[in-house]
Fold:
Amino acid sequence: MDHLQTFKNKEKFATMKILILNGPNLNLLGTREPDIYGSETFESFFGQLCSAYPQISLEYFQSNHEGELIDKLHEVGFSFDGVVLNAGAYTHTSIALADAVSAIKAPVVEVHISNVHKREPFRHHSYLSAACVGSIVGLGLDGYRLAVEWLLRR
Ligand code: DQA
Structure:
């Protein structure tokens, strides 16, 4: 039974595809306001994440353009097993991104590195939260790992 379960898990993980999608200004992680976002680049973090989860296919895409983020959600949204989305400031402005999240089949987990609720009032509202399966805020880059872990175990 245990062996069978392990085998099934391996089979599941082997086919799992997860996209990490970062929005505007997140290409500057490492140098951008390090007191808020830390001093690690996303590329370095993503390398570690891939090493920690060799059994799944992790893809990373970042864009500063709203339409490109929407196009990417459409591209993967019917074939991938999950998306981890940090839409940056579009979180607080974009009904179009929220509609894209609602339109696709893949579950989307919203992540914010900083605790947006402790910051300026305009960061307290997310158009995306209601369309996402859940949100992780304020746990730094570890939030992305926790989101991946959740998608794996669901
Ligand atoms: C952010 C929070 C947003 O308010 C901000 O615009 C970002 C980053 C975060 O990860 O904490 O760009 O999404």
Summary: Residues 25, 86, 88-89, 91, 112-114, 116, 123 surround DQA (CB under 6 Å). The beta strands are 17-22, 57-62, 82-86, 108-112, 134-137. The domain at 2-153 is CATH 3.40.50.9100 (Rossmann fold).
